[in-house]
């Protein structure tokens, strides 16, 4: 009896630990550069990393500038901003530190142009935007059965802004093994109970 209770407790703990890691989403908030009004990262190929997520603009997509625009400059929460291109499109590439199954973020443009989200697994989605200057009043939430680790965001608008990114990592193989082991152990305890 004690052995069954101990085995059931261990199995339950394995299942709980595994399911906890399934539910863990990670949020990245763009930091406000105050007391500066903004931080300029560069033109063309430029990047910054916040909370292990890399945000970049690419010269292959435009000759625009990349900034962290703060609330002292805009009066709105801090954003990452691709802007002022003379050729190409405003663009921000988000590269996650691991494979993910879903993400959400807030976005906005100056002129209300459409915004395209291209996952590196081949899925592409286009949504409208509100011409809201530096306010990110539009939101997107996307998930995919095929894992991905990068999202290219583009818009023909003069300015593209993003903030408040949340993503859900794909569970590592060890987590799946832990969940499977816990479930098998629980099934064994139940089977023993039923056969007695």
| Outline | elongated
Distance between the termini: 11 Å
Helix content: 25-40%
According to DSSP, the number of beta strands is 11
CATH structural class of the largest domain: Mainly Beta
The appropriate CATH architecture of the largest domain is: Sandwich
The biggest sheet, with number of strands, parallel, antiparallel or mixed sense and barrel status, is: 11 strands, antiparallel
CATH topology of the largest domain: the name is: Jelly Rolls
Task: Tell me the strand percentage band.
Answer: 35-45%
Structural class: alpha+beta
How many DSSP helices? 3
Question: What value does the average pLDDT take?
Answer: 86
Rg, please? 22 Å
- Flag low-confidence runs: 10-22, 174-179
Order of secondary-structure elements: HEEEEEHEEEEEEH
- Give the domain tally: 2
Question: What's the SSE blueprint?
Answer:
Blueprint: H1 2-23, E1 26-28, E2 38-43, E3 46-50, E4 53-57, E5 65-69, H2 71-74, E6 79-83, E7 90-109, E8 115-119, E9 124-127, E10 138-155, E11 159-169, H3 173-195
Antiparallel strand pairs: 1-11, 2-5, 3-4, 4-7, 5-6, 6-11, 7-10, 7-11, 8-9, 8-10
Helix pairs in contact: 1-3
What does this structure look like?
Helix 1 packs antiparallel against helix 3. The protein is elongated and about 75 Å long. Residues 10-22 and 174-179 have low confidence and may be disordered. The longest helix is centred in the C-terminal third of the chain and has 23 residues, at 173-195. 25% of the residues lie in helices and 44% in strands. It is an alpha+beta fold. The chain has two domains: 2-21 and 175-195, no CATH class; 25-170, Jelly Rolls, CATH 2.60.120. It has helices at 2-23, 71-74, 173-195, and strands at 26-28, 38-43, 46-50, 53-57, 65-69, 79-83, 90-109, 115-119, 124-127, 138-155, 159-169. Strands 1, 2, 3, 4, 5, 6, 7, 8, 9, 10 and 11 form an eleven-stranded antiparallel beta sheet that branches. It has three helices and eleven strands.
């Amino acid at each position: 009896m004690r052995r069954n209770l101990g085995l059931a407790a261990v199995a339950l703990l394995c299942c709980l630990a595994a399911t906890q890691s399934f539910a863990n989403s990670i949020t990245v908030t763009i930091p406000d550069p105050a007391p500066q009004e903004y931080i300029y990262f560069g033109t063309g190929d430029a990047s910054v990393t916040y909370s292990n997520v890399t945000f970049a603009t690419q010269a292959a997509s435009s000759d625009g500038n990349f900034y962290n625009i703060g609330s002292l400059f805009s009066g709105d929460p801090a954003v990452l901003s691709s802007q002022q291109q003379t050729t190409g499109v405003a663009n921000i590439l988000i590269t996650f530190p691991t494979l993910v199954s879903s993400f959400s973020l807030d976005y906005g443009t100056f002129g209300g142009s459409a915004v395209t989200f291209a996952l590196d697994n081949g899925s592409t989605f286009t949504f409208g935007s509100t011409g809201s200057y530096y306010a990110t009043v539009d939101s997107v939430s996307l998930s995919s059965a095929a894992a991905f680790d990068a999202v290219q965001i583009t818009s023909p608008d003069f300015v593209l802004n993003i903030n408040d990114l949340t993503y859900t990592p794909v569970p590592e193989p060890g987590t799946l093994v832990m969940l499977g082991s816990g479930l098998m152990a629980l099934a064994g305890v139940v089977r023993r109970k039923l056969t007695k």
